[in-house]
TrEMBL record:
Cofactor(s) annotated in UniProt: a divalent metal cation
GO molecular function annotation: metal ion binding
Pfam families: DDE_Tnp_4
Domain of life per record: Eukaryota
Species name: Grifola frondosa
Residues passing through the membrane, by range: 12-34
Keywords of this entry: Membrane, Metal-binding, Transmembrane, Transmembrane helix
Annotated DDE Tnp4 domain residues: 254-339
Designated name of the protein: DDE Tnp4 domain-containing protein
The keyword S-adenosyl-L-methionine appears for this protein: no
Amino acid sequence: MPPRRPPTDRQLWAYVVDNSIGAALIPFIVFLSMNILQEYSPPPLLTFQQMLDIFDDPDELIHPHAVIPADFRPPTLFRERLITDTLVTLEDLITSYSALHDDILYRRVINPGQPIPKISHLPLLFWHSDYSPRDFRRLVRMAPAAFEYILSRIENHPIFFNNSNNAQAPVRDQLAVTLYRFGRYGNVTVGDIAEWAGVSTGTVDNYTKRVMFALIGQHDHALRWPSHAEIEGAKRWVVSKVGCETWRNGYLGVDGTLSELFEKPAWYGDAFFGKNAAFSLNTQVVTFLPTLRFVDYAIGNAGSVHDSEAFRMTHIYHHHARLLGPGEWIWADSAYPSETCEGV
Ligand SMILES: *[C@@H]1O[C@H](CO)[C@@H](O)[C@H](O)[C@H]1NC(C)=O
Ligand SMILES: *[C@@H]1O[C@H](CO)[C@@H](O)[C@H](O)[C@H]1NC(C)=O
Ligand SMILES: CC(=O)N[C@H]1CO[C@H](CO)[C@@H](O)[C@@H]1O
């Protein structure tokens, strides 16, 4: 491949002339230039008859299919110059055309523009992790220890390794950018996030997709029903907290929370208006009280859906007979009707 260099105007022009018309135009231009030279140059080109006269023996006239002898010289100096000039011009054109052709194939753009300077704020984020956990939390919405734990869970996921020649960015960076993105409101665009991380918007999307993929792989590890021993321990914990033996079976709690949306959704927008006087989504979470681990959830309900209604989408609502032992129940506030757990 010829050395890469920015295309000149002439090369761009040659590119435009490319494809079907280019091939036809170049010989035409050469022909035209020869004609112009013929008209304006002092010694006119020889006619065919004059050419014949120059050769003593007509047999020496070059046959159209003959190989040109190495010692062949055109009859006049002018003619020689005309032919070499034309050939040089033609060669130049062909060289620059094929250089441009290769260049465009390689870069896939006609006008490459200027590379965008990129400055990453990630080093500052990781500095905060050591010296200013509060700022770390402000940026990625979690404590450094939580970040490290999630990183240790996902960093060996195969999505972060592939056969590509270009190694991916460290998983730590990919996780940080994704969490930063998750923690922004609708008034921050992907472009803003890309600028913050010093990468392109496409890369922000790729990081997010990979991290989401790896995180979903952790679903069953993070959300699981407590073991029998954990439940027994939890019951003792409840008694120690409330000091009342009768409540020992209440080791789970449920509540809903509304997450505000940036703007009213275009479709069925009013249905998202919740009791927090904003357009929101309802999330139900069942927690294991001693550790506050989530054991069940329901997501995706519109903000106007009542907590008790959203609770019907949880796993435990449908399978409480199997999941809860005799006499076990769930702590909830008055928004949840008590009959939900009746007979359990
Ligand atoms: C985006 O909106 C949130 C919530 O109103 C606000 O706290 C934040 O400062 C805003 N960010 C920008 C960059 O305007
Ligand atoms: C994002 O990932 C896709 C698929 O692996 C890849 O083709 C694309 O070039 C990536 N984009 C960026 C900006 O790295
Ligand atoms: C083998 C493997 O895991 N390849 C992954 C390489 O990365 C892309 C995303 O950038 C994944 O889609 C592939 O699965």
